[in-house]
Write a structure and sequence with these properties.
By secondary structure, the protein is an alpha+beta fold. The protein has helices at residues 2-7, 73-79, 146-168, 179-200, 202-211, 220-226, 238-249, 253-256, 293-313, 322-336, 339-352, 387-392, 397-415, 448-462, 466-475, 486-499, 510-522, 530-549, 555-613, 623-658, 661-694; strands spanning 35-39, 46-50, 59-61, 67-69, 90-91, 94-100, 107-113, 257-260, 266-267, 271-278, 283-289, 359-360, 373-377, 382-383, 417-419, 427-429, 435-437, 443-445. Helix 13 (397-415) packs antiparallel against helix 18. Bound molecules: adenosine-5'-triphosphate. The active site is at 421 (proton acceptor).
């Protein structure tokens, strides 16, 4: 039967295919069945030939090593009669019937589920909400206009820009500026941002979630609000989901799945998850991508690229590599809608944990998966933060907390392939207390050479050697080796001396350390590659989960054996060739500095002589006063623009009252231009203020 399904020639792909070999859903099935009919799921109707053959084996080992229930060959031959259009009997739990296609046109061969009242699906999932429909959202309509979408995106960006400008401008606070007022305004803007992002749909929700990991780029209030963006996107209809699956997998739902649950168990920005049962009885989940997502991404990312380029050019957005950040986000977004990539990730992750029996990773059903549809083994569990359900099952919460961290340490330190989004929705606990991972769309990889550098960083942190820490950060490209790094060294030394030397009772949480790191990085030439920010965020999320599960939880305790193992490793390395190398290097350093010393003294003497004789002149620039003068000029210009803008506005109003609308409009436009110039000047002043604070 599998061959029948796979060999169907159909209209999904938009072209007639004629497949007679037994490719298919499960290579363990050797069914081969022959028939001929007309098949159509789109507007065109096509002829196709079906072959079906089945071995005499009553059962075989299928995917996942489980047995596959099969219908005897004789039975299949009997049922072959149904192919020619007459209502058929069931084959492997489904029946072949003649019916009309979705357009009500040509006769179509579909496989209808066997009429049965018994459901093969497990009992309904607890806590699944009835999700609202996505109808009514402009982005949910696959045929939205690209122009309208671009207008929506730009309106949002411009509104955000103006709001931020007002939040940061002291003159925009009626009754005087205070930090409290600014914080409360920022919170308002952040909450407006979250709502707008939800309205803008999938691309922006996903980007919002990604931004919530970047405390190094965005203000605290924004990061807090964006991290609340739990994919609250409405679900799309089951009809839409089923049509999409059929188009992607190239066969009718009833042919592929014995049962398909219409109500999704989860809906997210990029897709939704339905439970289903395969014809061999295996319980699966089908992750279906939101139709039209690629088109939406294309439009949105085109606009976002322009925005990133503008940010990059504009002084007021700092020195961040906005185009680089955009490219990173675009890569992640496109990767997330490539379910083949997710399936490969799941397979690799499953392989990495094959010897650890307390971690479960769902098996991928490759034959039922494609770019936009992913079928996975159904592995239900209690969400890791659902304390009541965990307690009801008598699970050991402290052990779960330790295991969650340990599993992550294994990913970072041993396999180098890590889950970049371990939020509580993606972690569950199985009946045997093992940890289940879901969602492999966003995975990170720490390549061997990066891992080696990270270990060096770890050792230098352990030795509290600020210079080495900085060199390792430069090697990791997390720090730019430009300009005067003495202030960076002081920050690093402060970090090493204060934050890492606390006794266990003073120990800070990882989240707090991460925040401190980002705070330091805001004033320094640090550039945290997204891999690090993901790792830091992942650890602080897991640490948070750890505290929820067990108030006594200590990250340090769980990580200690791993750290010790690494230090032992280093010690063993040092005892060998490295020690010899180190001694040789020290000898070299001593020799070269002894040799160069007289030359250096001579150079200093020459400088002093040149100064004495007046041959060498020192030109001193007082940068502070230069900046102050520049600021005064900008403010002067801003005042002039305000006066001119106000005057034109008055003239406009006067002319408008007198009925000379043309002149009035001209004046209004002029006033608008001057107002924009005022905003621009304020931006530049802010930028100078910020710069002054940094140095
Ligand atoms: N193999 C599985 N077995 C049981 N339930 C699953 C399985 N895969 C996913 N789920 C359920 O569906 C939910 C959403 O799945 P998943 O996270 O993979 O989707 P997503 O679209 O990537 O969502 P998000 O972006 O929010 O992480 C999970 O939290 C889990 O409850």
């Amino acid at each position: 039967m599998a061959a029948l399904l796979a060999s169907q020639s159909c209209c999904y792909g938009g072209e007639t295919a004629r497949v007679t070999k037994a490719i298919g859903f499960s290579s363990s099935l050797e069914n081969h069945f022959t028939g001929e009919a007309t098949q159509c799921y789109g507007s065109k109707s096509k002829r196709f030939r079906i072959e079906m053959r089945q071995s005499e084996l009553p059962s075989k080992v299928g995917i996942n090593g489980r047995s596959v229930k099969m219908v005897p060959a004789s039975e299949v031959v009997k049922r072959k009669d149904g192919v020619n259009g007459s209502a058929g009997k069931g084959v492997n739990g489904a029946s072949l019937v003649s019916s009309r296609n979705i357009n009500g046109a040509a006769s179509t061969l579909v496989k209808a589920p066997k009429k049965t009242t018994e459901s093969y699906l497990p009992p309904p999932v607890e806590g699944v909400r009835v999700l609202p429909s996505d109808e009514g959202f402009s982005w949910a309509d696959e045929n939205y206009s690209s122009l309208q979408r671009s207008i929506d995106v730009w309106s949002f960006v411009i509104s955000l820009r103006i709001r931020i400008l007002f939040d940061n401008s002291k003159w925009a606070y009626v009754g005087g500026f205070t930090e409290e007022k600014q914080k409360s305004r920022r919170r308002e803007t952040a909450s407006w941002l979250r709502e707008s992002v939800l309205q803008l749909g999938p691309t922006f929700i996903k980007l919002g979630q990604l931004s919530s990991t970047r405390s190094d780029l965005f203000p605290r209030e924004f990061v807090d609000e964006l991290s609340k963006l739990q994919d609250r996107v409405p679900a799309f209809s089951p009809e839409k989901a089923k049509r999409f699956i059929e188009a992607e997998l190239g066969a009718p739902i009833s042919v592929m799945y014995k049962e398909f649950e219409e109500q999704p168990i989860a809906a997210a920005s990029l897709g939704q998850v339905h439970r289903a049962v395969l014809h061999n009885g295996e319980k699966v989940v089908v992750k279906v991508q939101r139709p039209g997502l690629k088109k939406l991404f294309d439009i949105d990312l085109r606009n976002l690229k322009l925005i990133a380029e503008y940010f990059q050019k504009s002084e007021s957005f700092g020195t961040n590599d906005w185009v680089g950040i955009y490219e990173e986000c675009a890569l992640i977004l496109y990767q997330e809608i490539d379910y083949i990539n997710e399936a490969k990730n799941a397979d690799r992750f499953r392989r990495d944990f094959r010897n650890i029996n307390w971690v479960r990773v769902p098996l991928v059903y490759w034959d039922y998966s494609a770019m936009k549809v992913l079928t996975l083994e159904y592995v239900p569990g209690v969400k890791i933060n659902n304390l009541d359900a965990l307690a009801a099952r008598g699970f050991n919460r402290s052990r779960i907390a330790s295991r969650a961290i340990e599993a992550y340490l294994i990913q970072i330190l041993k396999t180098g392939f890590f889950h970049a989004d371990p939020h509580p929705g993606n972690l569950a606990i199985d009946v045997d207390e093992s940890i289940i991972y879901y969602d492999f769309g966003m995975m990170g990889e720490i390549k061997t050479f990066t891992r080696k550098r990270l270990l060096d960083l770890f050792y230098s942190v352990y030795e509290k050697d600020a210079k080495k820490v900085m060199q390792n950060l430069i090697d990791l490209e997390a720090l730019q080796p430009t300009g005067d790094l003495s202030s960076v060294r002081r920050s690093v030394q402060f970090f090493l001396d204060n934050l890492l030397s606390q006794s266990p009772d003073q120990q800070q949480t990882l989240a707090a350390i991460g925040e401190d790191l980002f705070a330091i990085s805001q004033d320094q030439p640090f550039r945290f590659p997204s891999t690090f920010t993901f790792v830091i965020r992942a650890f602080s999320t897991l640490e948070g989960i750890g505290y929820i599960l067990d108030p006594e939880f200590s990250f340090v305790k769980v990580a200690a054996p791993y750290a010790q193992e690494l230090l032992d490793l280093k010690q063993r390395q040092r005892s060998g060739t490295q020690l010899v190398q180190e001694i040789r290097k020290q000898a070299d350093d001593a020799r070269s500095s002894t040799l160069s010393m007289p030359y250096r003294v001579q150079r200093i003497e020459e400088f002093v002589k040149e100064l004495d004789s007046g041959d060498l002149k020192l030109r001193v620039r007082v940068l502070e006063s230069e900046r102050a003068a520049r600021k005064a000029t900008i403010l002067q210009m801003a005042t002039m623009y305000t006066v001119l803008g106000g005057t034109l506005l008055n003239i406009g109003v006067t002319f408008s009252n007198q009925g000379s609308q043309l002149v009035a409009n001209g004046s209004f436009i002029g006033a608008g231009i001057f107002m924009l110039l005022v905003l621009r000047s304020m931006q530049r002043v802010n930028k100078l203020d910020k710069f002054e604070k940094m140095i």
